[in-house]
Hints:
The protein has a domain at 39-111. It contains 4 helices and 3 strands. The protein has helices at residues 18-35, 47-56, 86-90, 96-111, and strands spanning 41-45, 68-71, 77-81. The chain is globular, with a radius of gyration of 14 Å.
Amino acid sequence: xxxxxxxxxxxxxxxxxxxxxxxxxxxxxxxxxxxxxxxxxxxxxxxxxxxxxxxxxxxxxxxxxxxxxxxxxxxxxxxxxxxxxxxxxxxxxxxxxxxxxxxxxxxxxxxxxxx
Length: 115
């Protein structure tokens, strides 16, 4: 397992600018390329992470949503999840059970993928 982020700084009010997203995408792209051969399942936490991943890999027509699962042409599995922000967890948009489920799904999928 490897955890990274699309934006590497803590911008004011936790709202990154398009410039910050673009600048950090160079680092994210490098990280993803280094992990390319060992990655089976990708979980994106939030729409920003989902959109960033899709942009780097030129994935079109994928729609963000919680627990959306996509089999990519590369054979990898992409799972999108709501971000575990205070706003999402305090309002119940993302519950503890939903959060645990995402990782259980990813684990189950990764155990059944062979390269």
